[in-house]
Description:
With about 240 residues, this protein is of the alpha/beta class. The protein has 10 helices and 7 strands.
Amino acid sequence: MTAPIGIVACSAEGAALCYRTICVEGEALLGPHAHPEVSLHGHSLADYVACLERGDLEGVAALMLSSAHKLAAAGAAFLICPDNTIHAALPLVRPRSPLPWLHIAEVVAEEAMARGYRRLGITGTRWLVESAVYPEALGARGLAHALPSEAERAEADRIIMAELVKGVFRPEARAWFSALFARMATAGCDAVVLGCTEIPLIAGADDSPLPLLDSTRLLARAALRHAVAARRAGLRG
């Protein structure tokens, strides 16, 4: 038995990849066809975008907390959110949440440390790369970071919001991200964070001269480990 996982969804593509990773990779920990119980709740992406556009983190937090309460009622033991951008509101959410959360940037930072990386390139929406989500998580562990240029932020945001969140994966977008990863290599980065949960659907190891830290799958794997560990701890108690 494992502790039930609650997924606070934002975009459909990122949430689906996270859910699928939990289900597929659960087998390695739990046996054939096995995975933890998973509940998912998501408000309309439009509601989140409206809050982000007006800089309303309290509004983002309210949406996340609404999902948190519904997932708690459904029996989840802890929560994850497969969306990097709205983690900017997590400091407002955690003190009021009915359940504990894993933090996607903290999971990525721990993985970077385990692999010995020191300077990470951050990719994602303009809201994400202009937020403190990754600088805080990385800085707390003594890790440096580099951000895309203003022009790169604008194009990454366009691709993510106009294409990737809608399930549109064009070869031109894949080539653009590949060029961004190469530019980050020349800027002295030793790895790149895929800080949008949809980027792993269009770009992989073959597209980058640097190792890629897939935030979506890393979060899903952390949730799997936590689900197993939490249940074992409960049994010992």
